[in-house]
Amino acid sequence: MQGSDAVELVRPDTLEEALAAKAERPGAVPLAGGTDVMVELNYDHRRPEALVDLTRIAELATWSASGGHVRLGAGVPYTRLIDELGDTLPGLAMASRTVGSPQIRNRGTVGGNLGAASPAGDTHPVLLAAGAEIEVASVRGARRIPADTFYTGVKRNALAPDELITAVHVPSAAVPAEQFSKVGTRNAMVIAVCSFALVLRDGHVGAAIGSAAPTPRRVPDAEAFLAAELPWGTDAPLPDSLKRRFGELVAAATEPIDDVRGTAEYRTHALGVLARRTLTWAWDDHRGSVRACA
Amino acid sequence: MRVNLTVNGERRRADDVWEGESLLYVLRERLGLPGSKNACEQGECGSCTVYLDDVPACACLVAAGQAEGREVRTVEGLADGDALDPVQQSFVDAGAVQCGFCTPGLVVAAHDLLRREPDPSDEEIREALAGNLCRCTGYEKILDAVHSAAGAR
Ligand SMILES: Cc1cc2nc3c(=O)[nH]c(=O)nc-3n(C[C@H](O)[C@H](O)[C@H](O)COP(=O)(O)OP(=O)(O)OC[C@H]3O[C@@H](n4cnc5c(N)ncnc54)[C@H](O)[C@@H]3O)c2cc1C
Ligand code: FES
Ligand code: FES
């Protein structure tokens, strides 16, 4: 693990300095919680010319809520997201609770999950289903990228080489009908074999799959079907036929591969099951809120 | 590069640190604190768990330079002089230590749990220690140790 090649470590105190460093050397690798980057360094899988430590930049580690949205700084660790935003962003908090272990959640961040853009990253399906936007910045200015167009390939995202992720903007849940579920080989410390997120909001449905295609992605046919068929505003239970059809449409949208964690066939099957279950839970949330209002 | 940090209440300085080096390496190889163990270097085993600014983290996944100016507390910093911390004493008494490789990380993680939850259930203990692997004990004695430490505090 001793250093062979020189790596520079840049430690900016402000976002401005960090963006200047990234503009000067686009090959520099941002370092947030380090739970992906340090593994690669320890195992010599990566020898970047420079690392840019983002953990000293206070503004990346804050969040704020206004106008039905939360702006969550890219550097807020999962543990704080869970503790501080569990009620406001229930879907994202649910996904965060399934990440790694307490030690990993104390350091790992949503910004790092997005930077790594692994098809198995747990926050991606929720960000997609919730209609989140990724805020990125460079010395050239800031822009927002809809989660829909952020994931461009296996471990690839829409960031330009001089850009950093600064925050995610997530609609907060007026009614907490948001669910995330993942299949893994045990309860703790598992990378998702496949995962699914569902958000129900005022006649709108967001649904997305993880680990079942080259990128995390939404499932538009299944979303449109549910939006049209759900008995919105009532506390009626859902017919089994509706849940089954939803599960089929989700399964049909997968494009999985066989790997060490599971076969393609298993993933497609499991996603149909996850879809039916999360629909039952999310609809129960919706019914609860309808009854509370009545 | 030089890294200045506070370790177990003392100001320390490490020189000739490689920029990509982990905090774990600095603690063990440069500061003479071999308590935190190096078993996987990928965040999977938890045997390197230390407090970083009072938050438990895998020292193998923290770049040493990220600890500049910060406070680290390792398993060596839990005892009060010769008196072991109740968590350490309970691990000894309950027979929760076999080869002992996992113990320092487990002790720090259990110490943190008991600060937050003075009387945890089995389930809460399992959840809090989910990032710490033990190949020897089968975890039952570890659960006993944490319960008895909770009683002793
Ligand atoms: C033991 C273990 C278990 C894990 N379990 C899970 C799991 O269950 N689910 C899961 O989804 N992930 C898991 N991970 C992976 C990892 O913890 C997550 O991807 C985490 O969100 C990474 O965040 P970080 O802050 O540690 O990122 P880092 O490691 O610091 O960075 C990750 C990537 O993002 C880039 N990056 C970081 N911040 C920014 C930014 N602001 N702008 C631009 N680029 C940036 C980095 O350059 C790097 O490419 C696990 C990792 C370990 C070691
Ligand atoms: S050595 Fe750090 S988690 Fe295993
Ligand atoms: S006692 Fe040997 S690994 Fe836990």
Q: Could you characterize what this model shows?
A:
The complex is a heterodimer of chains A (294) and B (153). Helices cover 37% and strands 23% of the residues of chain A. Chain A has three domains: 8-53, Uridine Diphospho-n-acetylenolpyruvylglucosamine Reductase, domain 2 (2-Layer Sandwich); 59-171, Uridine Diphospho-n-acetylenolpyruvylglucosamine Reductase, domain 3, CATH 3.30.465; 183-288, Enolase-like, domain 1 (2-Layer Sandwich). Chain A is α+β, with helices and mostly antiparallel strands. Chain A starts with 7 loop residues before the first strand and ends with a helix. Chain A has helices spanning 15-24, 37-42, 78-85, 90-97, 102-107, 110-116, 123-129, 147-150, 220-229, 240-252, 264-293; strands at residues 8-10, 29-31, 50-53, 63-66, 69-73, 133-138, 141-146, 151-153, 156-157, 164-171, 178-183, 194-201, 204-210, 217-218. Chain A contains eleven helices and 14 strands. With 153 residues, chain B is of the alpha+beta class. The longest helix of chain B has 14 residues, at 103-116. Flavin-adenine dinucleotide sits between chains A (29-37, 39, 54, 74, 98-100, 104, 107-109, 111-113, 115-116, 121-122, 164-165, 189, 191) and B (42-44).
Counting structural domains of chain A, the number is 3
How far apart the termini of chain A lie comes to 63 Å
Helix/sheet category of chain A: alpha+beta
In CATH, the homologous superfamily of the largest domain in chain B goes by the name: Beta-grasp domain
From the alpha carbons, calculate the radius of gyration of chain B and give it in angstroms: 15 Å
Number of helices of chain B: 5
Largest beta-sheet characterization of chain B: 5 strands, mixed
CATH architecture verdict of the largest domain in chain B: Roll
What are the main properties of this structure?
heterodimer; A: 294 residues; alpha+beta; Uridine Diphospho-n-acetylenolpyruvylglucosamine Reductase, domain 2; Uridine Diphospho-n-acetylenolpyruvylglucosamine Reductase, domain 3; 3 domains; 5-stranded antiparallel beta sheet; 4-stranded antiparallel beta sheet; globular; B: alpha+beta; Ubiquitin-like (UB roll); 5-stranded mixed beta sheet; 5 strands; 33% helix; binds flavin-adenine dinucleotide; binds FE2/S2 (inorganic) cluster; oxidoreductase (chain B)
